[in-house]
């Protein structure tokens, strides 16, 4: 069907001596006065809307604190803000966010049980993006004697999360559960090393 349409289009291309069919400009009817009124009212609406949005941002109107707390807990709003507008987290904040990630991964069990693969994949990738920077920042809080075991556990965690991502993408149910449990175990070991 697509190639047939291409051939028709190619056959009907106007040549240099043919002009495409357009009405002469003098025969085009002028716009009715009602259309001009609608055009001005539309412009006024856009002007009013942009004024309201500008004023609300200038006044600093924000959503209620409860909404911001929920967004922070889920990690949606904070991801963009921290990625693009904040320089980086301190080692203590990074360790706290690793603990928060461990709790979030435990709460993800229901999504795995209902096989909501798209949401699980989004959540795992979001937390993986966080962990990349957090593992490096949190290493400063680990004593020198335990750094080797911290690095080994962090590498296991990254490997398990990448395997979990791969098996969720396929989706393979048994392997997803297996690497989910391995990821939780690695996170628990990491949190115990940070404590």
UniProtKB/TrEMBL annotation:
Region of interest called Disordered, as start-end residue ranges on this chain: 14-38
Pro residues bias locations: 21-34
Q: Which domain of life is it from?
A: Eukaryota
GO BP annotations listed: photosynthetic electron transport chain
What GO cellular-component annotations does this UniProt entry give? chloroplast; extrinsic component of membrane; photosystem II oxygen evolving complex
Molecular function terms from GO: calcium ion binding
What name does the UniProt record give this protein?
Photosynthetic NDH subcomplex L 2
Q: Which organism is it from?
A: Zingiber officinale (Ginger)
């Amino acid at each position: 069907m697509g190639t047939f349409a291409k051939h028709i289009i190619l056959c009907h291309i106007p040549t240099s001596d043919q002009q495409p069919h357009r009405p002469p400009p003098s025969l085009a009817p002028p716009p009715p006065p009602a259309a001009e009124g609608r055009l001005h009212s539309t412009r006024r609406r856009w002007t009013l809307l942009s004024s309201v949005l500008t004023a609300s941002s200038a006044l600093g109107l924000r959503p209620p604190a409860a909404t911001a707390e929920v967004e922070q807990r889920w990690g949606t709003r904070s991801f963009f803000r921290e990625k693009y507008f904040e320089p980086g987290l301190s080692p203590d904040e990074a360790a706290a966010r690793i603990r928060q990630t461990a709790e979030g991964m435990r709460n993800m069990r229901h999504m795995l049980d209902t096989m909501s693969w798209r949401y699980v994949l989004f959540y795992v990738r979001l937390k993986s993006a966080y962990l990349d920077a957090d593992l490096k920042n949190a290493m400063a809080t680990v004593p020198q004697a335990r750094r080797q075991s911290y690095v080994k556990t962090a590498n296991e965690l990254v490997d398990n999360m990448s395997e979990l991502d791969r098996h969720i993408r396929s989706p393979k149910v048994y392997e997803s559960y297996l690497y989910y449990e391995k990821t939780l175990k690695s996170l628990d070991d990491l949190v115990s090393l940070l404590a």
